[in-house]
WG containing repeat-containing protein
Amino acid sequence: MIRYIIWTFFFSCTALAQELMVTGEFKHEYRTIDLYDNIRRALFILEKGNVYLPEDRAYFLKLRPADAKRLGTSHILLIPLFGDKITYKYDIPISFEILPIPNAPDVYYTKKAFYTDEQGKKITLSYPEELPLSPMEKIKKGIPIYYQEINNSDDFRDIPQWIEALSNKQEVTTIGIMHWDGVDKDGKMVGGSEEYKEQELMSELAQEKLSSLSYLLKSIVPLPKKPTQEDWRKWWQRFQNYSFPLVKHLPVHIETFQEFIDSYRLYALDKETQKVYNLAQGTEYYPVPELLVFDVQNDKVERGRIYSEKQPDATAFVTFYAQNDTLYTLNSHFVWAKYVPKRVNDSLFYQQIASADVAPEPNRSYREVYYQDIEYEIVQTYTTAKCMYFLVQKKDTNEFQVMTLDTKTGKIEGKIPLNPLLDNPKKLEHHTQDIATGATDNFVFQLKTEKGVYFLKCNATKLLEKILLGKKFEWGTTYLSWGKKQYYGDMDANDTFNFYTIARPSKEHRVSSPDDIYDTRIMEQDEESVVAFYEYYDGFFSGLKMQRLDKDTHALKGKSSLLYQYFPVEELSSVNTPSCLKAFKINGQWHVFFAKEKRYYWVKVK
């Protein structure tokens, strides 16, 4: 691992100035990549702040065998600065001078290309020679400029000259375009456009130009909200000393798979063996046989299987519990089951040794019924060593009940109809929430009626608490509890940690985060703290961080800890960002698990 990190660091540092020549072909069937914003920042830095950025697209190039061997890959992702016309020249050899994008393996940009067309003519494309004159060059030559050239947020050429122009009172001729439409005397829609010329001060154009670029520039080196000319001069000077950021390769265990990892996965901690189990939920139509076992004591990962045609209940899981290497599961067909490990051809297999039908109706089995034909749906679960709780809704109705099983035997311990306890409301909906690991031995959930959102807590046989939180309540919060102290926590796009009292009415307390918080996030707890794990983006890198907060005051406890960092290339989506995030505190140390594309990650927090 250490050798890999050192090699990557060396490659990234030397790659800034390294130029290569390769030959390859574009293929019609290859997809086009939509690039993320930080690639624009990378190109701006690599080109020393003087660049005309192309469209946010990149193209796969199939390398000839000799170049594939030299680069260690059959394909590279290519960003042409001279435009995308050449990328539609399919199945013909094209040679490129390429420069690597640091932090992004197999991603390059190019400023020069050579190929021979169908008529045998040798064609050369080069940057910046292919570009039109910049607005600044036109002004110097006395050529009128179109106003939209000033607002072109892709053209970062001549920034030092625009900075000096902030105090220039010279008048410049600009061309605007006026569009019009209307109805003629016959009632027909008509329209058109015409150009008009104006005289504008150079200083005003410079202000307009720099403002159109500042959204990107200030994310590289900070700028005041209303920068003066002197602020811009200092900014440019600081940028000259700016070093290209390099991704931090932190210790992590990675498991690689053949396919993209499904985002719907379940976790359970076996406290006796200190193993973390990971199961794919799967469906009756697409069972996922593989399970992962993260062995904390022995610092290893083992892959096993649980589904087979002989045990069809081992799919469509909604919750499970692990103890002494035995798994206790519940699936969406209302089948409880018990599985134990065995070795089959030296590989791990979990064999079902007991099962029970636990449908809401007595003497009813949904084992062999298609999911859409099951009359009930499990909408929330929570499992402890003793109880397996699940909130059940009768489909196409507003009827809800809580069912509780003995975790180890599958025996039904209780059924609690909820409608009568809420005065049989006309409207009743499940309001999504989570429960932090180990926060309670009871079951907590939220239901929404015409009066508002209720907090409900029950044990196996009866309702313990019912509190109307308010007419509205935040969706997807996490229940946190230390004895009698209980509240909900959340993180949102406002980059705040939010906390909500469990009271009538609920009150909110917000704490600002030092990071930009993105979609993947969870809240857990330990003895003294709320512990938040979240995806972040800082304008250049993305990854995962951890932040501890005081359980009483919610104040931040120290700085956030970086757990994992990467350099996004493609536009962010649910496929290429962290998912399946979960964390457990084991022997005083946090262990964080998540998936990204075709890899599973295990991070141990120091």
Observations:
- The two ends are 17 Å apart (CA to CA).
- Residues 1-17 have pLDDT under 50 and may be disordered.
- Residues 135-241 form one domain.
